[in-house]
């Protein structure tokens, strides 16, 4: 039984003090004590369903004092501080001004002294919490280890800070104006001493007025450098408190609003889900291969896929003489396998096996760098699990509507409670499986906002699958792997990091406690199998022409293309460039040169709808044999796709010939994964050339220091020896970590030590640039249910603005309706940064604006129509005409 502070000892008139009221006066006010008790009720539900008590104890146990483990009674006391920070988070609502002004509660203490009009309650809650436990620390630990009281004072102080911020965002113990949290607490105490009606209902009022707050003013008195070597653990302890506290507060408030209890929707019946998965043809085929190694003799690629599938599962569950398994020993697993080897299928199997063989793990999170990968994986999972409510799959991003339990009902038939429940599920990630972006994931780990911190509690005791980690900012790799390592151990997260080009990031941190397990022990065995190694023949002849003479490179590239086209007649050709500008120039030239061929452009200037339609066309196969058409063969056997690096991941097209402007080695391999992806054709080739500078895209990335103009790097790509390639980056990153001018592990540890939440969040951002978007209003034709539908961009914008500004509508209902409308809004939306003005990157041509979304009423002027699909693309060059120096 958790040790909670007895409210009877500290609150007078508790039967008259409110926590929440119903603005419509349809139900009676919620008493403060009811709200605090409900908060703990939902905390206990999280303990029961999510196992968070063990998580909290685990975090505390990893914190050291003067390099020593904490005594058991100290661990128990810190846990008591933790849970009572949750229980007492709203104790400041005893403030008569809060009762009178916010709760419309005509309490005598306010009527008798109406001058005390400060209705704030969070800082008062923090002060009362400090008062109750500071006294206890001085009493209990008077003769304990030297400095221990200061250490416990500091924990108390930090937990109090979390309480004070539970209605807003985390800054840090010192904010950007260099004002300390203690200054606010000191100021509040001084006001109370002058005017004690603020705490008229606090039974320990007289003792509070005698509180010596100065003991908190000296950092030495607070912690005496005792936890310096546990900086990350201490940071995570406080972040986790914030997440649990805000979550439980939300749950309790939701219960008062709706009268509904909470369903967390974790994975409970793993056997049933495994049975569904194991009934798929792919899994059955692998099982047949286990029994008969000749089963896939007519399909060598499936034989290799089966071998990797089996090896990854065996290594996950490998048992040692002491009875332990790799699953128990390790928290982070590497899954490195070639493109087209079935990594997604392997990851599903691994995740389900982790849940099957782990006591508390009951949730799966997929993390992707691109929305295309999110959508692709969602389709794969839906094909397997369908509409199984016990395995509901939620996409959490800015373009996918919030999952609603009322999707089949008309809006008029949906009550307010349903909207609130659906929105709560989205905020809290109450889904068995979550697919989201790396931006969201990093916000959960490092963000400072109130709502973005809520999902942290849902990450504990879960599987996290991170795809394409090499796409993250290179300079952040040491910081990323350090935090992933510690988060995984403290929150019992089993992390699978998977990619075809996987840097072993653990080499960047020196920690004997860090344990990483490779699920494919010798990936080169598969990479060098002729099926993968020889599926594409590499040609570097064009690299003898330097990009210092771009016109010559262009001539030689077009000559080589012409030769390839003439030799192959019908062929599916992919050409990748580094910049959109270059891609557009070559697209226009190629289209004019080969008018009889289908020429397609795929860049970041496509809407998601257009890109999906184009990709579906590229992938389309004949469904039956009829005349010259053969079942299973591509409908479009003769086409040219001109693209940027958006093609490298998440777009599973299969081409015959590739041309690529060189950049970084792992990007070259990702590109090769689009050529002969099925491994079923012969004579597929890739040609590399050097046109634009890779620095334009990969700024401050150590991987661009060498490229395919170096013959050694050519050998790495041919042999698929990515370890040697990454070793150079690792070496440079380690050197960078010694550079005091860069934000390195040392700086991050120092920020964690003093709980500088803002600075950690700022420096762990995956994207530095502010993101702006253009909404180009025009008429668009889309297909819905095999019928053409005309969308009016202006009407959709006006509807969005009206809904966005509607403050009368319930917040939950508005957010769900906005998420639905956002699906249509994104059809007209394009990312944009004005690179002509380094001081103001915002779009200059626009007629309206909501946040970072800029409305352009004459959007049709800046669109190009694709005649075959009848869809439109953004003409960036046309929009940019005259932008330089233009301010609207």
Automatic annotation (TrEMBL):
Record flagged with keyword Amino-acid biosynthesis: no
Residues of the HD Cas3-type domain: 25-251
SUPFAM superfamilies linked to this entry: P-loop containing nucleoside triphosphate hydrolases
GO molecular function, a single term: endonuclease activity
Ranges of residues in domain Helicase ATP-binding: 324-520
Keywords, in A-Z order: Antiviral defense, ATP-binding, Endonuclease, Helicase, Hydrolase, Metal-binding, Nuclease, Nucleotide-binding
Name used for this protein in its record: CRISPR-associated helicase Cas3/CRISPR-associated endonuclease Cas3-HD
Species whose genome carries this gene: Gottschalkia purinilytica (Clostridium purinilyticum)
């Amino acid at each position: 039984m958790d040790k909670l502070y007895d409210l009877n000892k500290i609150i007078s008139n508790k039967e008259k003090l409110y926590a929440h009221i119903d603005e419509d006066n349809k139900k009676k006010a919620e008493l403060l004590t009811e709200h605090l008790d409900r908060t703990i009720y939902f905390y206990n539900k999280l303990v029961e369903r999510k196992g968070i008590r063990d998580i909290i104890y685990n975090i505390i146990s990893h914190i050291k004092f003067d390099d020593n483990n904490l005594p058991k009674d100290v661990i128990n006391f810190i846990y008591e501080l933790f849970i009572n920070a949750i229980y007492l988070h709203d104790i400041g609502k005893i403030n008569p001004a809060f009762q009178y002004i916010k709760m419309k509660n005509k309490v005598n203490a306010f009527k008798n002294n109406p001058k005390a009009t400060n209705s704030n309650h969070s800082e008062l809650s923090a002060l009362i919490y400090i008062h109750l436990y500071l006294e206890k620390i001085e009493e209990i630990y008077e003769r304990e280890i030297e400095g221990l009281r200061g250490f416990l004072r500091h924990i108390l102080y930090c937990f109090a800070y979390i309480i004070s911020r539970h209605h807003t965002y985390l800054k840090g113990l010192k904010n950007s104006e260099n004002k300390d949290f203690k200054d606010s607490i000191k100021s509040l105490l001084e006001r109370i001493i002058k005017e004690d009606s603020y705490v008229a209902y606090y039974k320990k009022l007289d003792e509070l007025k005698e509180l010596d707050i100065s003991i908190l003013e000296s950092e030495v008195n607070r912690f005496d450098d005792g936890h310096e070597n546990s900086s990350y653990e201490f940071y995570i302890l406080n972040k986790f408190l914030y997440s649990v506290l805000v979550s439980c507060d939300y749950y309790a408030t939701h219960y008062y609003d709706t009268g509904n209890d909470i369903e967390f929707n974790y994975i409970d019946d793993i056997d049933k889900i495994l049975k569904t998965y194991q009934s798929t043809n792919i899994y059955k085929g692998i099982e047949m291969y286990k029994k008969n190694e000749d089963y896939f003799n007519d399909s060598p690629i499936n034989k290799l896929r089966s071998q990797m599938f089996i090896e990854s599962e065996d290594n996950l569950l490998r048992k040692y003489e002491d009875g332990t398994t790799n699953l128990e020993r390790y928290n982070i697993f590497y899954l490195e396998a070639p493109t087209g080897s079935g990594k997604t299928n392997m990851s599903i199997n691994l995740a389900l096996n982790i849940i099957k063989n782990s006591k508390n793990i009951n949730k799966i999170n997929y993390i992707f760098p691109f929305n295309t990968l999110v959508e692709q994986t969602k389709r794969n999972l839906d094909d397997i699990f369908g509409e199984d409510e016990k395995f509901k799959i939620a996409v959490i991003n800015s373009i996918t509507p919030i999952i609603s339990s009322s999707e089949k009902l008309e809006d008029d038939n949906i009550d307010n409670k349903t909207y609130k429940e659906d929105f709560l599920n989205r905020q809290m990630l109450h889904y068995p499986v979550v697919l989201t972006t790396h931006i969201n994931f990093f916000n959960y780990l490092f963000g400072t906002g109130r709502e973005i911190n809520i999902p942290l509690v849902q990450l504990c005791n879960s599987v996290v699958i991170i795809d394409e980690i090499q796409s993250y900012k290179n300079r952040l790799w040491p910081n990323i792997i350090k935090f992933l390592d510690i988060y995984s151990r403290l929150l019992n997260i089993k992390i699978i990091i998977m990619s075809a080009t996987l840097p072993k990031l653990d080499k960047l941190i020196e920690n004997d406690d860090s344990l990483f397990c490779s699920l494919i022990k010798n990936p080169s065995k598969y990479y060098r199998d002729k099926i993968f190694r020889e599926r594409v023949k590499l040609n570097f002849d064009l690299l003898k022409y330097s990009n210092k003479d771009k016109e010559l490179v262009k001539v030689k590239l077009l000559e080589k293309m012409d030769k390839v086209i003439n030799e192959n007649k019908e062929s599916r050709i992919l050409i990748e460039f580094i910049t959109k500008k270059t891609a557009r120039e070559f697209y226009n030239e190629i289209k004019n040169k080969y008018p009889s061929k289908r020429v397609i452009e795929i860049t970041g200037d496509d809407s998601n709808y257009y890109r999906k339609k184009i990709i579906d066309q590229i992938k389309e196969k004949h469904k039956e044999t009829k005349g010259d058409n053969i079942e299973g063969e591509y409908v479009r056997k003769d086409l040219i796709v001109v693209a940027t690096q958006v093609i490298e991941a998440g777009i599973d097209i299969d081409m015959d010939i590739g041309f690529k402007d060189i950049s970084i080695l792992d990007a070259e391999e990702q590109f090769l994964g689009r050529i002969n992806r099925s491994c079923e054709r012969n004579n597929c080739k890739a040609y590399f050339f050097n046109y634009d500078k890779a620095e334009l895209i990969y700024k401050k990335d150590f991987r661009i220091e060498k490229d395919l103009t170096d013959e050694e790097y050519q050998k790495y790509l041919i042999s698929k020896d990515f370890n040697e390639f990454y070793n150079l980056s690792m070496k440079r990153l380690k050197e960078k970590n010694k550079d005091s001018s860069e934000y390195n592990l040392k700086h991050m540890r120092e920020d964690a030590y003093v709980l500088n939440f803002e600075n950690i969040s700022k420096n762990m951002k995956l994207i530095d640039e502010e993101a702006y978007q253009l909404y180009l209003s025009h008429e668009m034709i889309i297909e819905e249910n095999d019928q053409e539908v005309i969308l009016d961009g202006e009407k959709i914008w006006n509807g969005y603005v009206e809904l966005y500004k509607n403050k009368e509508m319930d917040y939950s209902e508005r957010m769900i309706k906005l998420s639905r409308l956002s699906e249509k809004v994104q059809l007209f939306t394009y990312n944009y940064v004005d690179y002509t003005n380094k001081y103001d990157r915002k779009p200059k041509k626009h007629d309206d604006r909501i946040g970072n979304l800029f409305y352009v009423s004459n959007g049709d002027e800046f669109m190009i129509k694709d005649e075959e699909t009848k869809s439109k693309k953004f003409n960036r060059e046309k929009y940019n005409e005259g932008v330089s120096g233009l301010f609207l």
